[in-house]
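G., the chain you wanted modeled:
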Amino acid sequence: MVKQYTYQPSNVLVRQIQKAASITGVLALTAAAYLSQANTLMAAAPDSKHALDPAIRLAMQSYEGTAQVKDFQATFIKREKVGRKMQATQTMQIKFREQPLSVYLHFQKPHTGREVIYVHGRNGNQILAHETGIKGLVGTVSLLPNSPQAMDESRYPITTIGIRKMLFQILKQWKTERQVDAGVNVKYFPDAKLGNMQCKVLQTSYPQQKQGLRFHMTRLYIDKSTNLPVRVEQYDWPTKRNNTPELVEEYTYTNIRTNSGLSDADFDPKNPAYNY
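Predicted structure as tokens:
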């Protein structure tokens, strides 16, 4: 089982949750409900007996640490099942800035050379994307983040990307699951490895599917040296045809460099280092 920790959120954390939730409309709809649930949980934390509580405490500690990350650069690796098809693993370099929400992606594989820029409040709140080779002859394409073309290979829009939002969604998920009497099994692996990273891993799973449970099993990886979330894995429910839980979501951030002072130029298609 997960080791027991006592943790009380600071006022700074509460403000940062509000800020994260207000960045995009996707999160804003859930902010008030999440804050209410989080405050209720943490107020009762020292005496709480729910099996999920230690995992939530550790995740909240990591989440509070992400409040200090104003921007970051990293290698972002994504594996997702979209519809009935498992997409090819996507590896890209990411530049990310919290305010205004700004994302630059440079694909390494597949779609080598593809570049994507999104800046909230600019470019009509649209993605600016372009390909290379023959596809690049089309030039830069403007897409709404939730348009079918932008979502063709993704489960979620670009507005939900980033280590802080990734962890926010896990906390929101566990808070919802905490209200379901489903016999959760929580495991804590304090000495796991992700490549060369020393990690602590929180794993939650359920014996059977119930309303309010979206995933059979969830794994959250936290870098021990930085306490930042670096990977989330989500598994679907086993079926009669396949008794092994199926991976449907996996998001990994490696080589993270935080607070490097990213500027508007890093999210400008006119940047001479880019190929727009």
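The CA atoms of residues 45 and 53 lie 7 Å apart.

Shout if anything looks off.
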